[in-house]
Design brief:
The chain is an alpha+beta fold and 350 residues long. 37% of the residues lie in helices and 23% in strands. It has an eight-stranded mixed beta sheet with strand order 10-9-16-15-14-13-12-11. Strands 2-1-8-7 form a four-stranded mixed beta sheet. Strands 3-4-5-6 form a four-stranded antiparallel beta sheet. A hairpin with a 2-residue loop joins β13 and β14.
């Protein structure tokens, strides 16, 4: 059935591959947006206004003939759906506006055929990094639909070729995550089906610096978050003892934190040998700050607690120490969360 769905997607995308704004010699992405905004039936007038109100670097990038970019472009109707008050507020906040626009842009020209191939290879779900830094979720839906972070891709307006990339039109403005890790944990703990209620209790009982760090919007963190079931597996007596020992609890929590933003793609990249040289490993000074050392299928990573943890890839999945990573790449304004099925303990001294 999945094969049929993918073939259907490919057929639909091919039918929609004739660009609505095709030109014999296409201009840059910026040129196409300007031309459409000033057309008899404008499509990107609000997008143009947003680009002009954002950091000038946005317009420079979209105008750069040497660039290679993919833009998921919201229509005027997509912006209008936000409401006049929201649009006015966003246009008046240059930092927020720039952040939102960068979330609509990918590095490199990603054609519809690339999307279809990626969906086919990844169980009809893709996560791709935006220029804003957070990941965009691309998914295959019902009846051949494709969504981009919840916005529907207009299959009649894909592969609009530009001299510096490609435009795909979407029917909604997509928003990067603005909640901090602390806010996400709090909201999930209070959900109808809570997931992190024990983790929230642990953070509240630990040194206040832990909560301050997870709440800091300027931080860049990776948190391996144990579920309620992971904590429950420790037993009530152990949980009670740990919650009563602030120093121990703080040490355990910080052991679940990497003081850098590490996505699953970064882990895969670090585990992938350099092409053409299976023995090649990066020089120490070229390694990211979070990576201490590498082995065959393993990574030693630096935690905020001070000790290292081991990430390993096996036929059973991806693990950090003995905990399996069961969900990856939950974006936050100040980092990323990976959900794990066990509490990991820092090594004891001596």
């Amino acid at each position: 059935m999945r094969k049929f769905v993918v073939l259907l997607l490919a057929a639909v995308l091919m039918l929609g591959a004739v660009p609505a704004f095709a030109q014999d010699a296409p201009g840059t992405i910026a040129d196409i947006v300007v031309a459409s905004a000033s057309a008899e039936t404008p499509e990107f007038a609000t997008l143009l206004a947003a680009v002009q109100a954002a950091d000038p670097a946005i317009l420079e990038a979209l105008s750069n003939p040497e660039a290679s970019l993919t833009v998921f472009a919201p229509t005027d109707a997509a912006f209008a759906a936000l409401g006049e008050e929201t649009i006015a507020a966003v246009l008046a906040d240059q930092a927020l506006l720039t952040n939102i626009l960068l979330f609509h842009v990918l590095d490199g020209a990603v054609m519809s055929s690339d999307v279809v191939a990626g969906l086919e290879a990844n169980d009809n779900m893709l996560q791709v990094p935006s220029l804003q830094g957070q990941y965009i979720d691309i998914a295959a839906g019902d009846m051949g639909a494709i969504t981009v972070n919840g916005a529907t891709l207009n299959l009649e307006m894909v592969d609009i070729a530009a001299s510096n990339g490609v435009i795909h039109v979407i029917d909604a403005v997509i928003m990067p995550e603005t909640r901090t890790i602390a806010e996400i944990v709090t909201e999930m703990a209070g959900a109808e089906t809570p997931e992190f209620s024990t983790l929230l209790a642990a953070v509240a009982a630990a040194d206040p610096a832990v909560l301050e760090t997870l709440s800091n919007p300027e931080a860049e963190l990776t948190v391996f978050a144990p579920t309620d079931a992971a904590f429950a597996a420790l037993g009530e007596e152990t949980i009670t003892a740990v919650l009563a020992d602030q120093a121990m609890l703080t040490s355990i929590l910080l052991y679940h934190v990497i003081p850098a933003k590490v996505y699953s793609g970064d882990i895969v990249a670090a585990l992938t040998p350099v092409e053409g040289d299976m023995e090649a490993t990066p020089e120490v000074e070229m390694m990211p700050t979070w990576l201490v050392s590498m082995g065959e299928g393993t990574l030693e990573v630096a935690t905020a607690q001070g000790a290292t943890a081991t990430i390993s890839v096996t036929e059973d999945g991806v693990f950090i120490n003995d905990a399996q990573i069961v969900m990856t790449d939950v974006d936050a304004a100040n980092g990323v969360v990976h959900v794990i099925d066990a509490v990991i303990m820092p090594p004891t001294e001596g």
